[in-house]
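cron nightly-structures :: item 1 of 1
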Amino acid sequence: MWKLERGNTRQITVVATFAVVYFLFRMIPTFSMVGVSGGTFSLGDVIAPLYGIILGPYAGAVSITLGTVIAFAFGRPMIFLGLDFLPSAIDALIVGLLMLRKKLIASALYLVLLIMFLANPYTAIFVPVSIPFLNVNSFFFYAWLHLLAFIILISPLSRKAVDWVNGASMVNLTSGVIILAFIGTLTQHLVGGLLYEIVLGMFVGEAPVVFRLLWNTVFWLYPFERGFIIVLSTLIGVPLVKTLKSTRFLTGLNADIEGSKSDDPKQTS
């Protein structure tokens, strides 16, 4: 991975190149956003965690931000008052921090986002679940998948995923990309939900009850939506990382994380 603070010509070129690639992916729509007239997700969502894996937290986030701005210039509509870059940028940031072995910072950031989402008055913490043929009528925790991502993030599995991505085994590489893409895309969904509530709720003035009804619908859709993104991220990410390793593009990967092999406060600050 490349460290943004190095500021050399090659790194600037890499950031600019990946920004253009992200712009191209962001211009390709995938599925509609529930509750946002004319709003769509984009193929850029698929490659966001890969930017964290390949470029690291800072260069990855900057490339995504620049690519989003370019997309605006070419007609991609703004949904969240120009802050549309945040979900994918923070996705890359958290995955990149994991790649740098800064798990403590990544976990703390994710936890803050999760608490902010759950504490927001526009969030439906529990949604009604009715499955007649199973005689089930109850309430279910809306952010169950986000909670699962946090549990994986703070578990040894996230550290293993980084080891697998850095290793030579193709099977382990696939597992590592799946785990990191899972954490990344749920981060992205969390930030997107927060932006949705803040912009359309607090700024536009929609009533909290409208959002709670909306989350009842999203609850059934988002696991499939996030699953689709994880599958595509893996299908693109595994051969991409393998190719970049073979071309020695990622030769600086282990050097970048040298001295950051623990979550000691001195190393994660």
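cron nightly-structures :: done
The beta strands are 29-32, 40-42, 126-131, 136-141.
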